[in-house]
């Protein structure tokens, strides 16, 4: 077996002696100790790992900036066991100055081999119940380097756990809403706002009237599936100025699949924009039988309307004013589908 001991060391540091002396500087240096060997199977093994773990544990009992910096350095150790010891030390210290290091761990430790350490880091933050933890973690996720990967469901679980433990949803959501205006961060902000539903729904509804974020808000509301968004989405669909936002609203109504979406989708089937008409039709497909049943009801009510509607001279059907005169072909198409459904 070949051994490659770190250049600064000729033998392992005596961590217990350093702990008794309270020598924080030497213990921090001990965090750099490595003794890497190639075993008989050709695998690389670092015999310095237990030494570094003991040094991190010893630093837990020391106060001061040097010990704090050492523990934060230990969070970057290549071995998960050393990181776990450092996390346990930080849990006991409850030092607000180490919050940034814990947040970075919660946001960036995405490699499979660090799954346990990441769970431990989140557990420390949850136990602290620090009101800043959630929104700082959200900010770290917004700006996470590509080397740590794109956002995943696991990130959403982390963020939700932190919010549930310490609150701070209002600040977190407000920051994410602001990030929608930044093209470099908008996609991740949108993803996180979906994760934070239903807490984020009211904020997203407010964005439907904002020209530059209406489309993004509609997409997020559709993914949230929250029925509170149906009426605001219908308003955007029928009166919004941006065709792309109206398309997103039509799609969102189909995703939410609430019965009250039928009438606005029917009216949108006569939208001047082909893309909006197409999406309104696709949303009916998502509504399934409930869409056909309610469309039938609309047709029936229209046929017996007592004069408050608008007469369609081509087929003799009186349609309510909001639906006249062009959605009738959509109704007929849906009714032709009814036997198939």
Describe this structure in words.
By secondary structure, the chain is mostly helical. The chain has three domains: 93 residues, Leucine-rich Repeat Variant (Alpha Horseshoe), CATH 1.25.10; 99 residues; 142 residues, Leucine-rich Repeat Variant, CATH 1.25.10.10. It is 61% helix and 4% strand. The chain is built from 19 helices and five strands. A three-stranded antiparallel beta sheet has the order 1-2-3, with no helix packed on it. A two-stranded antiparallel ribbon has the order 4-5. The N terminus and C terminus are likely disordered.
- Radius of gyration computed on alpha carbons: 30 Å
Task: Tell me, briefly, the overall form.
Answer: elongated
Count of folded domains: 3
Main beta-sheet strand count, sense and barrel state: 3 strands, antiparallel
How is the CATH topology of the largest domain named? Leucine-rich Repeat Variant
Features of this protein?
341 residues, mainly alpha, Leucine-rich Repeat Variant, 3 domains, three-stranded antiparallel beta sheet, 19 helices, elongated, disordered N terminus, disordered C terminus
Topology diagram in text:
Layout: E1 2-5, H1 15-21, H2 24-30, E2 35-38, E3 44-46, H3 49-59, H4 65-74, H5 80-93, H6 99-108, H7 115-128, H8 131-142, H9 153-166, H10 169-179, H11 186-195, H12 201-207, H13 214-224, H14 230-239, H15 243-256, H16 262-268, H17 274-287, H18 289-303, E4 310-311, E5 318-319, H19 328-337
Antiparallel strand pairs: 1-2, 2-3, 4-5
Helix pairs in contact: 1-3, 2-3, 2-4, 3-4, 3-5, 5-7, 6-7, 6-8, 7-9, 8-9, 8-10, 10-11, 11-13, 12-13, 13-15, 14-15, 14-16, 15-17, 16-17, 17-18, 18-19
């Amino acid at each position: 077996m070949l051994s490659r001991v770190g250049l600064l060391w000729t033998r392992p540091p005596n961590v217990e002696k350093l702990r008794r002396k309270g020598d924080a500087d030497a213990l921090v240096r001990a965090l750099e100790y490595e003794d890497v060997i190639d075993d008989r199977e050709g695998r690389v093994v670092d015999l310095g790992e237990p030494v570094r773990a003991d040094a991190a544990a010893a630093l837990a009992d020391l106060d001061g900036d040097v010990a704090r910096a050492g523990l934060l350095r230990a969070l970057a150790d290549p071995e998960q066991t050393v990181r776990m010891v450092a996390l346990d030390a930080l849990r006991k210290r409850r030092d607000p100055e180490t919050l940034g290091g814990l947040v970075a761990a919660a946001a960036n430790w995405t490699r499979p081999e660090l799954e346990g350490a990441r769970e431990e880091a989140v557990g420390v933050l949850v136990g602290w119940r620090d009101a800043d933890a959630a929104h700082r973690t959200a900010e770290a996720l917004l700006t996470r380097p590509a080397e740590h990967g794109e956002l995943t469901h696991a990130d959403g679980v982390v963020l939700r756990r932190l919010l549930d433990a310490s609150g701070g949803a209002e600040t977190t959501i407000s920051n994410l809403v602001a990030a929608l205006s930044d093209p470099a961060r908008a996609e991740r902000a949108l993803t996180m706002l979906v994760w934070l539903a239903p807490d984020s729904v009211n904020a997203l509804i407010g964005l439907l009237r904002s020209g530059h974020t209406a489309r993004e808000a509609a997409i997020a509301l559709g993914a949230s599936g929250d029925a509170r968004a149906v009426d605001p989405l219908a308003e955007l669909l029928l009166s919004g100025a941006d065709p792309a936002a109206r398309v997103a609203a039509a799609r969102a109504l189909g995703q939410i699949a609430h019965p009250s979406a039928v009438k606005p989708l029917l009216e949108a089937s006569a939208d001047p924009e082909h893309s909006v008409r197409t999406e309104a039709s696709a949303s009916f497909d998502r509504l399934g039988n409930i869409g056909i049943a309610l469309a039938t009801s609309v047709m029936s009510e229209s046929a017996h309307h007592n004069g408050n509607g608008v007469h369609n001279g081509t087929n003799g059907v009186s349609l309510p004013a909001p639906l006249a005169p062009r959605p009738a072909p959509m109704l007929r198409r849906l009714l032709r589908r009814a036997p198939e459904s």
